[in-house]
């Protein structure tokens, strides 16, 4: 029996396990025909094989980026119980167990999962440069900060007018439901200077500050976004300054409650919302993977069929979001916010992240928050609506098919400055019509809803798919 356990890329705690009883060869890689499928840009389609040799197991590297065993690069080497495999220098780590005990052992080797020259964008799950957080290493115990923290229980409809202090709870993981406790002092001595978690017990080595029930480990690349820790669980803690109006605060509270109650494979899990001082916070799971923008950079542009298959699940999610009362708008749909997760999720291979301030507000604020080129004209005027998300979808299709930003194909026409998909060389006429409709300056001229876009994408993919070869009868 052999058990393989994928380890958390930061804490080195178990994420997912696979157990094999009778296989003589176990293949690991990015392709779907492997026994263990790991979606990572640095993992080869067929990266490594584990081969049984009598009573022993050995690892054989097949990947172009190399395989590491307990920190040393190997081409072929024997496996020992508790060994750590790392696929590529900065890729995922897998612990190997060669006994009937399926529980992962404490890691026995340093796992440099994050390149020294980069930081981890936890919300997007990608590796990208960002500024280091500046602050004290000593955390304040909860309730002692000058701004304070007050929980008023789960918001109900009757509480909508009580915007001063609030807490919204969705389906929290078991660890978060446990009684809050500060991280224990770590006595292990093998940590290196740039470690933020102990590689043996998984607890934070440094705490920057405290927000409510969360120890804040570091600031992430996005404004007011943090890597949080609570009772052994890491999370993305996103802050929102809502000082504009009571209407804006109530809209935030209402739609945070909606997000925490929703479940969809393309949607990150939102765990809770709370207020700390003058800011409100939304807590969600971390999604590790690589964005479709990275995918294009690494693998080249997609064809019509590939792009359609990636975006059809996004249409399903938008249909659900836009049917809420009031509708939930994302307003940041672009390739960098579409994540191909390292760990497979139910019924999807893509997750929509990038849930910023505008994501949980209705069109009441009148403020433009978005990305030029991916943002509809009405959104730029501070008046977003569900059709604004469809505009972002159309602009994203352009990038997936061309590798160019959508504003590359903007020009003045007879009456307006807009994107003209017919300027994209060699583009299927059906896709030209789809993109032009999705990115029409007038939202009334776009598709009526995301379900209609999904139907059209399915039709285009079916028509564009090559016919299977016809076998001649003997």
TrEMBL record:
Residues 205-460 form the Protein kinase domain. The keyword Kinase applies. Residues 126-146 are annotated as: Disordered. Its EC number is 2.7.11.1. It catalyses: L-threonyl-[protein] + ATP = O-phospho-L-threonyl-[protein] + ADP + H(+); L-seryl-[protein] + ATP = O-phospho-L-seryl-[protein] + ADP + H(+). GO terms for molecular function: ATP binding; protein serine/threonine kinase activity. InterPro entries: FHA_dom, Kinase-like_dom_sf, Prot_kinase_dom, SMAD_FHA_dom_sf. Gene3D superfamilies: 2.60.200.20, Transferase(Phosphotransferase) domain 1. Keywords: ATP-binding, Kinase, Nucleotide-binding, Serine/threonine-protein kinase, Transferase. The keyword Nucleotide-binding applies. Residues 26-74 form the FHA domain. It comes from the Bacteria. This is non-specific serine/threonine protein kinase.
């Amino acid at each position: 029996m052999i058990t393989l356990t994928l380890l958390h890329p930061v804490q080195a705690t178990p994420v997912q396990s696979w157990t094999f009883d009778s296989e003589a060869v176990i293949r690991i890689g990015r392709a779907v025909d492997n026994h263990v499928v790991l979606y990572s840009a640095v993992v080869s389609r067929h990266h490594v094989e584990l081969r049984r040799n009598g009573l022993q197991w050995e690892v054989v590297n097949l990947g172009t980026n190399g395989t590491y065993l307990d920190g040393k690069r190997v081409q072929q080497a024997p496996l020992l119980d508790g060994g750590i495999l790392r696929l590529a220098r900065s890729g995922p780590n897998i612990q190997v167990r060669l006994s009937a005990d399926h529980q992962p052992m404490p890691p026995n080797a340093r796992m440099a999962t994050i390149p020294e020259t980069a930081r981890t964008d936890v919300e997007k799950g990608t590796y990208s440069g960002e500024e280091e957080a500046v602050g004290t290493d000593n955390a304040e115990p909860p309730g002692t900060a000058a701004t304070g923290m007050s929980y008023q229980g789960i918001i109900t409809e009757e509480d909508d007018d009580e915007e001063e202090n609030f807490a919204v709870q969705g389906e929290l993981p078991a660890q978060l439901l446990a009684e809050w406790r500060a991280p224990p002092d770590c006595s292990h001595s093998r940590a290196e200077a740039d470690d933020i978690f102990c590689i043996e017990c998984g607890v934070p080595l440094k705490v920057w500050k405290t927000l409510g029930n969360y120890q804040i480990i570091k600031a992430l690349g996005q404004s007011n976004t943090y890597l949080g820790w609570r009772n052994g669980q890491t999370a993305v803690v996103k802050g929102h300054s809502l000082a504009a109006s009571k209407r804006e605060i109530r809209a935030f509270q209402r739609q945070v409650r909606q997000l925490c109650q929703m479940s969809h494979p393309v949607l990150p899990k939102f765990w809770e919302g709370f207020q700390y001082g003058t800011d409100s916070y939304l807590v969600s799971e971390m999604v590790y993977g690589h964005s479709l923008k990275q995918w294009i950079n690494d693998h080249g542009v997609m064809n019509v069929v590939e792009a359609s298959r990636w975006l059809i699940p996004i249409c399903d999610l938008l249909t659900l979001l836009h049917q809420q009362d009031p509708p939930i708008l994302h307003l940041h749909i672009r390739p960098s916010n579409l994540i191909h997760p390292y760990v497979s999720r139910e019924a999807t291979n893509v997750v929509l992240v990038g849930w910023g301030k505008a994501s949980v507000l209705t069109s009441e604020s009148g403020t433009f928050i978005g990305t030029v080129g991916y943002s509809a004209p009405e959104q730029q005027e501070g008046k977003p609506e569900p059709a604004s998300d469809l505009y972002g979808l159309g602009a994203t299709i352009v990038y997936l098919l061309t590798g160019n930003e959508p504003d590359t194909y903007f020009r003045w026409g007879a009456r307006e400055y807009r994107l003209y998909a017919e300027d994209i060389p060699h583009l299927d006429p059906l896709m030209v019509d789809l993109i032009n409709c999705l990115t029409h300056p007038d939202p009334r001229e776009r598709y009526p809803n995301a379900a209609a876009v999904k139907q059209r994408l399915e039709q285009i993919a079916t028509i564009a798919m090559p016919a299977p070869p016809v076998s001649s009868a003997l």
